[in-house]
Amino acid sequence: MEKLIVSLLQELGEDPSREGLLKTPERVTRSLKYLTRGYSQKLDEVVHGALFEAVSDDMVIVRDIEFYSLCEHHLLPFFGKCHVGYIPKKKVLGVSKVARIVDMFARRLQIQERLTHEIAASIQEVLDCEGVGVVMEAQHLCMQMRGVEKQRSVMTTSAMLGSFRRELATRNEFTRLIR
Fold first, then answer.
1. Residues labelled as active-site residues
2. How many Å apart are CA 45 and CA 57, to the nearest integer?
3. Are 105 and 135 within 8 A, CB to CB?
4. How far apart, in whole angstroms, are the C-alpha atoms of residue 84 and residue 159?
5. Is the pTM higher than 0.85?
6. Percent with pLDDT over 70 in the chain
7. In the chain, which residue ranges form alpha helices assigned H by DSSP?
């Protein structure tokens, strides 16, 4: 990858042997591997058995989970907050594992719509719960730094599965509680 970064710098009109750029290929390589580490993670390893007996069937919500991802169209960051809710049947998920699932999918080249759905589907798969809701709000640097250059735009996506899709009251409770 470092050779590709050297070539990229040259294509941009830079001199890769310039003092400030000498270690850039190495740094960019490490950075990209870190920012896309989700490709090397598996759901069962992320959850790591952190499933616990549910004491009720009331809604569980983890909100304001910060996330950072890279747009697959421009390789520019998008970032924001993710809100996850579910209604357990038999098991609940360790709270940190919800955030780790968000990170696992965010640390891949993404579009926000797919990212939202992947998180919801994974929570549903792991818990076999009554329903799952995921809402994501993000700012996209591909919209802010280039193209239309809209600095305050925020994209919101949602994925509702099971009772969150079927039952308006459940969906409304979730959306009210994350605000």
1. 71-74, 112, 140, 142
2. 26
3. no
4. 10
5. yes
6. 100
7. 2-11, 24-35, 43-47, 95-106, 112-127, 141-144, 163-166, 168-178
